[in-house]
């Protein structure tokens, strides 16, 4: 299928139900985003992240008829990726330690949201932010990544994590607090 | 086509994976909502019966009960129904939470609103007399309900605490008669110096409440005898039944 960038996700879902080959457009549209998301929040290595990603797309395909057209497809597929990653981590009984790479924009977002001084050289700041994020509890790390790096709004995060919006707001607030405390404990000054 | 796309599509082909039909998801959703509605209704019924049992409890018993009012009050609480109420609220909460958009509502709001809904429906059930009907049906149809669950039986069949209730099975003479208590144990009741309060007579088959003390196994010395449950819902109460002449005098 020729994947037209103007075709909506909802439309591709409908077409995928008619012909499975159309599903490749959705895979290609979300492959890179979901890989980054899975690796950042789980710390899984490339191979494990690829396994989780493949399972995510297979599961999404099986459940295409359950996709709620009133939601964003991205929230739905992120939610499946979240659940698959959690299942994978539970089955392996450990988190990875490599939380992946951050591009400059992601770094600037998180520095700005957490009101970090950005005088430090970009490379050094990136290492500091990564070090603190890696030390955060997985729940808090994930919610900061969704909010500040993936740039999801409260409603989308609520749909991805299956939590009420109020809970999302208070978790973000607690995660920000924990980030600054961890930075302090690790002796990291921004 | 990316490598991942090829892998995924190839797996879909090899394993004959197909999207689950839409009706399966609809059915699952309907079942969740149905169980939610049923659990809320059952919780309301449990609440309605609890209110009925509490408001129709024989609160005057505490005057005779050896323990204080608080202990009697604790004894009178219809725990089974309240436990049922709690379980149904939880089941309703669990099912609502697993509906498609159930996660959007806060747990506290969900639980409180379901409790309030059950209380409102339960109060309606109580006010409509349906709670009374159900309580009476359970008493008639389920002997276990009478013996194990009904607080009125628990309160009155406590010979060691000086309280006994049952059905008169034999009148021996002016001072003695036999009863089967509500747990089917036979007692000889000796009524020396007994005062007969509010009950002008006894007959075989009448239900009575007796205040006194056990003398030995199967023998109960009565200080006071009362008819069962005038004005209340104690099962078998003979209010409204003709009082039989001639009464044996105690």
Structural class of chain A, please?
Answer: mainly alpha
Unreliable stretches of chain B: 229-250
This entry's quaternary arrangement is heterodimer
Query: How many structural domains does the protein architecture of chain A include?
Result: 2
The CATH homologous superfamily of the largest domain in chain A is named RNA polymerase sigma factor, region 2, helix turn helix motif
Mean pLDDT of chain B: 81
Q: Strand tally of chain B, please?
A: 6
CATH architecture of the largest domain in chain A: Orthogonal Bundle
Helix content range of chain A: 55-70%
Describe the global form of chain B. Answer: elongated
Tell me the span between the first and last alpha carbons of chain A: 48 Å
Helix-and-strand structural type of chain B: alpha/beta
Number of strands of chain A: 0
Structure description:
The complex is a heterodimer of chains A (190) and B (250). Chain A is mainly α and 190 residues long. Chain A has 2 domains: 84 residues, Orthogonal Bundle (Rna Polymerase Sigma Factor, Chain: A); 82 residues, Winged helix-like DNA-binding domain superfamily/Winged helix DNA-binding domain (Arc Repressor Mutant, subunit A, Orthogonal Bundle), CATH 1.10.10. In chain A, 69% of the residues lie in helices and 0% in strands. Chain A is built from 9 helices and no strands. Chain A is elongated, with a radius of gyration of 17 Å. Chain B has 250 residues and is α/β, with parallel strands linked by helices. Chain B has 2 domains: 128 residues, no CATH class; 70 residues, Beta Barrel (OB fold (Dihydrolipoamide Acetyltransferase, E2P)), CATH 2.40.50. Helix content of chain B is 48%, strand content 16%. Chain B is built from 8 helices and 6 strands. A 5-stranded mixed barrel of chain B has the order 1-2-3-6-5. In chain B, helix 2 packs antiparallel against helix 4 and helix 4 crosses helix 5. Chain B starts with a helix and ends in a 23-residue tail after the last strand. The C terminus of chain B is likely disordered. The interface between A and B is medium-sized, with 27 and 22 residues.
